[in-house]
Specification:
Shape: globular
Structural class: mainly beta
Distance between the termini: 69 Å
Largest sheet: 4 strands, antiparallel
Number of helices: 0
Strand content: over 45%
Amino acid sequence: MITLTTAPIHHVLTFPTQGELDVGYRITVAGRDGKLYHIRNGELTQTIIQLEAQPVGLVGAWARMYCRVCIGTQRRPAVPHDRSSH
């Protein structure tokens, strides 16, 4: 059992493609504290990545992991005033 210091919000499982007999796996967990934690073959590694913003999604593809973060908020552009009516 692995205990993290934060609540997990996303996780992705990847299998390295190193050989037919190598059955290792990795789990990457994004936490509410804005960090990525790596679990390799059931053990929490010492590699912890501090993100610049909160993670909003993780995707695993082949032996890679991609993380999307939220930077700021999206707002609608201000509607310009029609100055011809004044």
